[in-house]
Predict the structure.
Amino acid sequence: MKRPGNGRFAGCVAACGVAALLAGGVVLALPSGYALAAEAGIAELLPEAVLRARIEAMLPAPWRIESLTVEPLSNAAAQSPEPQAEARVTAKLVLGAPTYLVDSREGPVTFLRPAADAGLAKSWVATALGTRGANGWTVTLTPQTPGLLEGIGKPAAELPGRTVVLGTAEAKSLREQLDRDAAQRLADDTERRRREEERLAQQTAAAKAEAARAETERRAVEARIAQLADLRGKLAGNDRAVRLAAFEAALGGNDPALRQTAMEAALQSRDPVVANLALKDWIARRRAVPVQLYATKEDPSSEVVVQNLGPMTLEIDGFSPVNGALAGKLGAPGYSIARPSSIVGTLAQTELAVNSFGCALTLRLTEHRTLDGLLRCQTLPTLIARITLD
């Protein structure tokens, strides 16, 4: 190491220059014992090996100190009442490994650009001013080369991710692989978006179709309600011709709902003509009609007769809607007098009269959509009879 001028002061300035290398400016207060050390020889107190070790410990890993030089400058003691000394400190720094700058990052891969080669030398320069006061020596270092180590980058090991240097075969291979991966991701994203758009279009079309179907159904329901309401209105109107026409139109069609509505309205109508048409249509569509029998309070034995007779049935073999003439059989399992036998009958307006051997059945339409009346047989008590118009 070159030590021009006062060798004892040079050692102190060199030691103080270590901190200024990174801090940009350092003030060191030396103990008062340094006044005596100056006389004894400061070089022996701070050897070069100790200074080098301290400076290199403070430098970034790839840098090392090759040499330290302290050059005395003009003595400032003449302009100051206190003892002073000024010197220039020069540290020669050498880069121990190549450094790089980050060019780009793609996923886990970091592409690097070479920044500096190993062996690059830099000279760090500072001005040292030493002043001795009551507490000893104080040394101030003022760097003359700020930003000396900026922009030189870092070793590859200190940079994040998988580092690859541009221009190498590995970088070329990785770049091609990354481009393929990016192209595949783009294709996958495009396909995904296409599927999503297609699915959205299908959902939109399905929603529109469902809305159209619901609207069509709503309109059909409203039209149906209006149709049934119109039929009921005509059947309940005061014009008999309109009632008859509406009833015949409903019964002549193939619409079960209209037929059922017309039948219900006609059977509950007070118009005997309309009710007669409904009864004729109902009888014409039947082949066997159950007849329910009930006992009377006037004859206590009628309860036993009802139980012994069993279910009575009116079998219809022929019916004329023109004049209401009825032919068939009427009977029940019990009692020979009431066993099935041929009958003749007539539907006149809303009354049905049936005669068989020894028995007569007479019924009349009620507001409850039933034919109620009496069954009279020889040697048997009179019974209440009912046919339900289902």
Summary: The CA atoms of residues 128 and 141 lie 4 Å apart. The two ends are 128 Å apart (CA to CA). The chain has a mean pLDDT of 80. The chain has three domains: 48-163, 167-269, 285-388.
